[in-house]
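Sharing a chain and its predicted structure for anyone who wants a worked example. Both blocks are below, sequence first, C-alpha cells second.
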Amino acid sequence: MKIPASRKSQKESNFERINPDAAGIDIGSGEHWVCVPAERAEPNIRCFGCFTPDLMALAEWLIECQVETVAIACNRSVLDSSVSNPRS
C-alpha cells in the first residue's frame, strides 16, 4: 500500500522530541504501519504484513534504523482477537 502524498510531506512537529531512538508501530489485523525518525530512513514510514517473514523484515528495519524503543498502538478489536483466540 502506498503512503498518501499528504503523509509524505508532513511539516516538522512543534513537539519536543523526548526519545530520538524511538519508533512507533500501529498494529492492525492485516498490516502494521511503522514510523522511525525522519533522519533514519527514506521513506521513514513503512507498512509490513503480519506473517513471520514480514515481522522479521520489520525487526531488521528497526535494527538498521538504530531504533532502541518502540511505542505500540492497536485498536481493541485486534487486541481482543489475539487475547481471546491466541492460537487462531
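Comments welcome. The longest helix spans residues 52-64.
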